[in-house]
Amino acid sequence: MHVPDGFINAPVSVAAGAVAAAAVAVSLRGARRELAGAGAGGAAGAERTAPLAGLVAAFIFAVQMLNFPVAAGTSGHLLGGALAAILVGPYTGVLCVSVVLLMQGVLFADGGLTALGVNITDMAIVTTVVAYGLFRGLVKVLPRRRRSITVASFVAALVSVPAAAVAFTAMYALGGTADVPIGKVFTAMVGVHVLIGIGEAAITALTVGAVIAVRPDLVYGARGLAKPLELRTSPLAAPADEPAPAAVPAAPAPAAPRRSTRRVWLAGLAAALVCAGGISYYASASPDGLEKVAHDQGIDAKTRDHAAKDSPLADYSVKDITDARLSGGLAGVIGVGATLAVGTGVFVVLRRRRNDGAGQPDAGGRPSESV
Predict the structure, then answer these.
(1) Which phi and psi (to 5°) does residue 226 adopt?
(2) 0.85 cut: is pTM over it?
(3) Is 356 exposed, middle or buried (0-12, 13-18, 19+ CB in 10 A)?
(4) Cα 197 off chain centre by
(5) d(Cα 102, Cα 286) in Å, to the nearest integer?
(6) Close Cβ partners of 297 (under 8 Å, ≥ 6 residues apart)
(7) What does the pLDDT look like over 235-246, one tens digit per residue?
(8) In 3D, which of 232, 194, 250 has the Cα closest to residue 70?
(9) Per-residue pLDDT reduced to its tens digit, 30-71
């Protein structure tokens, strides 16, 4: 669903860019709290969220290269907003998908540079907000089990994709550059993206379910799932004519040993490299949902060439390498590495800034808390 340059006019693109910039700024502040473990999960969760966040961005980049067929002549790919929000939190999730879109636009000429604000608004903000809001609502009403997290992930991801299609249609209604009946655009976009949403839901649920199976503590959306153990004394422990002994304060439980995330991190990185460097060669070559609708409805009449069309990695291939398998695989591996480096750098800086701010005393001598 990467919107190229020329689909949306300049005023709406600028407005979408302002919305995206504001949302990213808010997400930077919110991600500091998520990465610092504020709220559910505490500081222990922070030690796990920060290293995982960069990996999530790289994994989304890799899986987005795996277009899957959804109808005759049409394919779809992961958007990733639901997956990122559930794994590392909604604010951090917005940043993960935004990093992916930035790397795709700058390095691979995928998604217009003047349309970057449109793409972040549509694919990072709308999907994350819709998916995480629905996910939290479902988790509250479903039984407190791991399976409920997977089910809620499936439904949230499924709904997030047509929601993004609706958001694109709204932006096109305000600033579309081609004279196309908006009703036809809405019907075509929502129809095909409901099918794509099924693939998105399957990928999201399988990934979340796999992480929960081995390390449920790494899933932001599953924090607080297990209830703490309560010790109660029976009223039959002492005779009725004797006063109950005074309650003895329980000794503090020993801190749980810190579990390393190295194995999960390495497994996730290996999966991303395999997807981008190998499996992507077998991805569907059919146009994705937006490209198909744009061609059929005439939305692409005023599409402009990408500013980075001459990039050495344009169209997910390495310039001057003629072997398609090697060229595409190498481009995918480079993309995973670049996204991982940029994403991890952003999240490590955010966590350090949060920790540094929390340690500075205020005027009253108390530690301050950066927000």
Answers:
(1) -85, 135
(2) yes
(3) exposed
(4) 15
(5) 24
(6) 180, 184, 185, 188
(7) 554 455 555 555
(8) 194
(9) 998 888 764 444 444 455 566 789 999 999 999 999 999 998
Beta-strand ranges (E) seen in the chain are 68-71, 74-76
CA dist list (Å): 3 to 27, 104, 122:
22, 12, 9
Q: How far apart are CA 21 and CA 121, in angstroms?
A: 9
Rounded to whole angstroms, how far apart are CA atoms 171 and 157? 21
Convert the pLDDT of each residue in 38-47 to its tens digit. Answer: 444 444 445 5
Share of the chain above pLDDT 90, in %: 72
> Distance between CA 49 and CA 33 in Å, rounded?
11
Angle at which helices 90-108 and 81-88 cross, to 10° = 130
Q: Rounded distance, CA 59 to CA 108, Å?
A: 16
Residues 6+ apart with CB under 8 A from 251: none
* The pLDDT value given to residue 41: 44
If one counts every other C-beta atom within 10 angstroms of the C-beta of residue 315, the result is 14
CA dihedral for 256, 260, 263, 267, sign (positive or negative):
positive
- Distance, CA of 205 to CA of 138 (rounded, Å): 14
List, for residues 244-286, the tens digit of each pLDDT value: 555 555 555 454 456 778 899 999 999 999 999 999 999 999 9
